[in-house]
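Hey,
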Amino acid sequence: MFPELNNLLNTTPDRAEQGKLTLLCDAKTDGSFLVHHFLSFYLKANCKVCFVALIQSFSHYNIVGQKLGVSLTTARERGQLVFLEGLKSSVDVFFRAQEEPHPLQFLREANAETLQPLYEFVREALKPVDSGETAWRYPVLLVDDLSVLLSLGVGVVAVLDFVHYCRATVCWELKGNMVALVHDSVDTEDEENDVLLNGLSHQSHLILRAEGLATGFCRDVHGQLTILWRRALRTTAQREQILTYQYKIQDKNVSFFARGMSPAVL
C-alpha cells in the first residue's frame, strides 16, 4: 500500500467508502502498481477480496504484496482472499475434464457471448458468510485486467454485461467495492477496447489514469497520474474534481509530485 497515494485520494483503510466502482487505466505505461496498491489496501482494511487475475501468477502478486506489507498466502489460507489465477486456470479448461462450468469456460468457445460462469464464481466467492466464520468488513472485487477478455475473443457487450452484474451484486446488493484495470489503446484503432473504456468511465466513481511521459523515458519521472472523482450532488448533476501528478516508482513506494516539481529537476 502506498501512503502517498492514500493521501492524494484522502482515504485510509479505516474509512474507505463503499458501493463504489474504481476504474484503473494505463496508456503507454504499466499501471499495475495501482492494482497492487488497491489489493494491499483492501486486505489491510480487513475486507473480503475476490481477485480475478488474468495477467500474472499468484506468486508474482504475492511477492509484490509482501513488499507492501501483506501476505496473499496468509490471506488466502484464512479465507479473506479468493484468487482466480487465469494463467493456471486456463490449463485446466483446455486439458482437464470439468464436471461443472469453469469460470473461464469462455476460452473453449469460438464466440463467447456471456461470462456468466465467471460472474457466478465472483458471486459465490463474495457471498455473505455464515455465522461463526470470520466476518469481513465488506466485499471487494478486483480484476486485472478487463482488456485481456477482449483479447481472448470475448465481445465488448459480454464484458460490459459482466461488469454490470458484478456491480449489481458487489456494489449495490452487498455494499462492497469493485476495482478494474483497462488498457487505453491510444496508438491502435481498437474500437471494442475504446467502447469498453468509455462505458466504464461513465459508470465509475473514481478514475485513476496512468500515462507515460510525452517526452519519453525519464530516469527520475516514470509517468503521470490523473485522478478524477465523481461526487453526486443532491441534484441530478455531478461534481467532478480532477488532479494531475507525476510519479516515480520505487521498490516499496511510489513518490508523487506536481508536474515539473520532481526533486531531480529542482
